[in-house]
Amino acid sequence: MLRNRYGVESRAGLAQMVVGAVGSLLIGAGLIAVLAYNWDEFPRWVRLVLAFGPLAASQAVSWWVLWKNDGAKPWTRESAALVQTLAIGAAMALVSQIYNLPGQWTDLVFWWCVVAVPLAWVLKSDAAAMAYLFGVAVWTIAQAGDRAMGSPALDVAEVRIWFPILLAGILPRWPGSDLGNRPQLGSRLVLAATALVGLLAVAASARGQQGQLTGSFTVFPWLAMLSSALVLLFPLDPDGVAEPLSRKPQVVLGGLAMVIMALIATYETPARELVSGVEPGLRLGWCWLLLAVLTGFMAVAFRQGRFAVLAVAGLALVPSLGALLSPAGTGGWPVAIAYSLLLLGTAIVLIALEFLGRQGAARIGAALITLLVILRMADADVSLLIKGLVFIGIGCVFLGFNVLVSHHRARVPGGSPT
Amino acid sequence: MRPAALVFAVASLAQWLVPLVGVWQHERIIARGVAVRFECGAPDPYDPFRGRFLAVRPAETMVLAPEGMPNRADRVMVPVWATLVADEHGLSHIQTLSLEPVSGPTVIRLGACLSGETNGAKMVSINWPLDRFYLNERLAPDADRLVAERLGRGKPPVAEIRLLDGQAVLTDILLDGVSIRETVKQQAK
To answer: Quick one: what percent of chain B has pLDDT higher than 70?
Structure first.
């Protein structure tokens, strides 16, 4: 019954799928390389036939797979979708080559993604969906890089508009028209990573525009924090909330990015720059959009009782409070101290939630406290002997706490020490 | 027809249309456009998808700014329309730049951004819409070496393009009036 409910792929089926995807990837990549050799001995029409022939053949195969509907094995769907995806790229590349089409490789990647993504929908292909997400992320980074570096290109795309649109292109696959298609773990990881990287690239492009216009200030760190909080708080259904952290890469990646940035902000200079980015940030429509979506996500997380992720995501709002409340001329110290205390508080919440039987992360909380103490000790003006003894003490406490958590988890009904 | 089949049919059509529109536009310009030649540089980089090419860099990259040229702080280029005129050697140069579209057989749409002053006159940096001449990977290094040698002797290669309605298609790179492809093939024999 559980198998019917969740449709779990058997190990043999999964292996077939991976082998099918790798084979298709090699065929498609080989096709692109063979065409990129540039067969200039052939007349133009022969080269056009070489470009469109593989595309036509792959379309015919995909049509056959689609016609078989549920009779087609998953690995044939994956292989057909991936080969066709790569045949599209090969056709577009060869036409550019034959006609000396100008423009960057990113133009090709953009159109490639746009016309290939329906294959992920109709053939229910994870490989094609992941290829699409990867392409979208690469394109967004390249476009944002052009903008941030002040590249003198004529038609640089506005990634703040295009990235969300392109990311939404995956919705017909996940969660699908019946809202029931949950991505497998590998697909979730790609989805979370590309969403985070794309949002960070958009934040970097905003920095480029603002930095060029007004000088030294930067809005990137705060926008990056807000973006990480969005990924961390992405709403889940009750089944998703109940899943362990290892099956929620968006929480791991978003939380990791958030904590790393918060740890950096425990130093005075980064904290000052973070606060100085709030006022120019609030002049950007993109910033307000992030804040609006974040508010919605926070409300959903609160209703679902996801207090641990809320505690971490809340770190993104500190710079705005710092800009509002800290007196002029105090530099970054109030915010740096606030981040140290909040990280400590977050760590305690993560530990307490687990011991209270709620969704927490005691080991992550302990690691966070350890990191904080190490950072503060590293820049403290005390002798190496004292630092060494403190590090040994922290190490012993950390290991002892690890044992304590293992015992606690073993005592919980159905629990495991790991 | 099932919805999935319909989506697949539309997507398959789009997969043909995107490259075919490029083919149609370029065939049209090649068939009906005006041939124009100008001096250029052409080093040999590499594209991960499309292989080796000569990066065509027209010699004329800084020209007088048109009246009312905006100063964009983010350095994103603005479109301008250049009218080309040929000299006594048949090589074209930019005669005028306009921020508004202009018509004419030798008009080309370019990208431009302000780039400082020369003798008190505002100058713009020009971005040409033709930057790639693809070559067989066996021939490209020889072509690169040949171009470098000629540039050293002050005899740059000449790019041949076709112009129609402001759009340009690069058709060949010439060395002494002969296609660089043919020259390199001859030398390889």
So the answer is: 93
Q: Which domain holds residue B1?
A: 1-32
Domain identity same for B23 and B74: no
Report the complex ipTM: 0.84
Tell me the pTM: 0.86
Indicate the Cα dihedral angle A237, A238, A240, A241, nearest 10°. 120
B21 lies in the same domain as B41: no
pLDDT digits (tens, 9 = 90+) for A88-118: 998 998 898 888 887 778 889 999 999 999 9
The reply to whether residue B170 touches residue A100, judged by beta carbons under 8 angstroms, is yes
Q: Structurally, how many domains does chain B consist of? A: 2
Backbone angles phi, psi at A188, to 5 degrees: -60, -40
Q: What's the gap in Å between the CA of A93 and the closest CA on chain B?
A: 5
Mutate to test the interface with A, among B27, B49, B132 (most CBs of A within 10 A): B49
pLDDT beneath 50: ranges in chain A: 1-2, 5-12, 210-217
> Which residues on chain B are in Cβ contact (under 8 Å) with A154?
76-79, 110-111, 127, 129
CB A359 within 8 A of CB A353: yes
Cβ–Cβ < 8 Å for B92, B86: yes
Residue A105 with chain B: CB contacts under 8 Å: 47-50
Which one of B8, B49, B127 has the shortest CB-CB distance to A152? B127
A68 within 8 A of A122, measured Cβ to Cβ: no
Q: Do B111 and B18 reside in the same domain of the chain?
A: no
Q: Are residues B140 and B161 in the same domain?
A: yes
Residues B183 and B126 in one domain: yes
Q: What angle do CA B103, B105, B107 make, to 5 degrees?
A: 60
Q: Kindly write down the DSSP assignment for every residue of A346-357, as one continuous string.
A: HHHHHHHHHHTT
pLDDT tens column, A28-79: 778 777 766 767 778 888 888 888 999 999 999 999 999 998 788 888 999 9
> Residues B181, B155: one domain?
yes
Single-letter residue type at A179:
L
- DSSP single-letter state for residue A70: G
| A210 Cα distance to chain centroid | 24
The verdict on B82 and B122 lying in the same domain is: yes
Q: Which distant-in-sequence residues (6+ apart) come within 8 Å of A412 by Cβ? A: A357
Q: Do B103 and B183 belong together in one domain?
A: yes
